[in-house]
Amino acid sequence: MEQNSQQQVEKYTYIDKPKKQTGAKVLNAVLVAIIAILIVVLILFTTMLTTITVDGKSMFPTLVDGDRLMLVKRGYKLKRGDIIVFTREERNNVKRILGLEGDVIKFDMETKTWIVNDTPYVEDYVEGGYSDNYFYMSIKEIFSEDGFVVPQGHLFVLGDNRNIQGGGVSMDSHIYGALDKSKIIGKVIRVY
Is the previous residue joined to 151 through a cis bond, with omega within 30 degrees of 0? Predict the structure, then answer.
């Protein structure tokens, strides 16, 4: 009997302790965290953000050919002065918002000033004035007493460069009228 009880005691007192693998566990946790962060960044970047490269002179001096722009594609609120990217005639365009839905846009030829809702709009970012042919193809409403009323779901956008070398003219709302908001790709949040 004594022998049986001894065997049982030995049986119950001997317990294998697991080997410590803290280094492997930490490495595994770090890898899982890195993969999760990469997945979140990928989802965020593909659904909320995008980048484009400026091609052209219509936003000079604010933006120059080759500048990279980061855009937010959703959840933004637009205001006068914001820079947006949109598609027009199967091409990406970068312009600044001058008029919002319902705004009345006019241009005073004497002072060379845009008038928004009967208030002169100061544009510190415009350099060099206006080229002689800037208004050659302009929509007539901007010169009328009533002005051009920006329709619902639209914006009035302009390039910052009003005096492009060689006589070029920024193709924007002063020529083709209001921009349909459904054409907007995103709002510029960073230039690099």
Answer: no
Are 152 and 183 part of one and the same domain? Answer: yes
Report how far residue 103's alpha carbon sits from residue 105's, in angstroms, rounded to the nearest whole number.
Answer: 6
- Per the structure, the count of domains in the chain is 2
Confirm whether pTM is higher than 0.70: yes
3-state helix, strand, coil in the chain (%, to 5): 25, 30, 45
Structure confidence by residue, pLDDT tens digits, 103-128 = 999 999 888 899 999 999 999 888 87
Give the strand order in the sheet containing 148-149.
Answer: 119-121, 113-116, 104-108, 148-149
Domain ranges, residue 28:
2-46
* Burial readout 79-102 (b: 16 or more C-beta within 10 A, e: otherwise): eeebbbbbeeeeeebbbbbbbbee
Q: Are both 70 and 87 inside the same structural domain?
A: yes
14 and 40 assigned to the same domain: yes
